Amino acid sequence: MTDPDLTLLQESSENVSLISSQFQAESEKNQLQMIPNLASAGEAGLDVLMDFLRSNQSTPISLVKGKVYQTLYQVNTSQTQDFLSTYFPTGVVPLDSDRQIDYRLLQKLLVEGDFQTADSLTRQKLCELAGEAAIGRKWLYFTEVEKFPLTDLHTINSLWWVHSEGKFGFSVQRKIWLSVGEDFPKLWPKINWKNGNNWTQYPNEFIWNLNAPAGHLPLLNQLRGVRVAASLYNHPVWEEKGW
């Protein structure tokens, strides 16, 4: 959004609908760039963002919806709190589960940008999906991954993808894996899980913010071999859910 547009927005609340229409008409790339400017434009800018979310309440999840929600959440005024609790009490990603697993805390951590805690919780949720034995041992067999419900994998991946501006998620890792011919030794350095002959050391050598390379998060225990990762990347969720 140009400076004159911001000035116009700040000068009169009557211009909110005009700026709102301009924002809605922009490309996804431009919208993502405009969101911080709108958030810094005061109450009128926040009105534009809330109007966007309200008018897109029933549309499919998108990076822009995720970024707008995240921005309003982090602004944390009484106005934005009331709006989000009324229209989006559990966020913009449906927290669906075939195993009655609660994903609300994972959603909250990702919205707040606490990627390290969200990563640990993601592994816990995957073990919950696998059952009591996996919960006890705290890691997965590839045969357990094959049986994961599509619904739950879709929910977990959507939360990561939407709240990282499309940078993180199992689907992102899978696309990179496919781009290198399903060659895991080529994948690991691409997503910075390995540097030369050295595995990236957990947790201090991992990057827990959006400066990380695409696909860097969430983590899998790659040291147990590639069978868990292969089962995850070959899961039918990616084809059936349109990833």
UniProtKB/TrEMBL annotation:
Pfam families on file: GUN4 (PF05419), GUN4_N (PF16416)
All residue ranges annotated as the GUN4-like domain in the record: 97-236
GO molecular function: tetrapyrrole binding
Chain ranges of the GUN4 N-terminal ARM-like repeat domain: 10-89
InterPro entries: ARM-type_fold, GUN4-like, GUN4-like_sf, GUN4_N
An example Gene Ontology CC term for this record: outer membrane-bounded periplasmic space
PANTHER family associated with the record: TETRAPYRROLE-BINDING PROTEIN, CHLOROPLASTIC
Descriptive protein name: GUN4 domain-containing protein
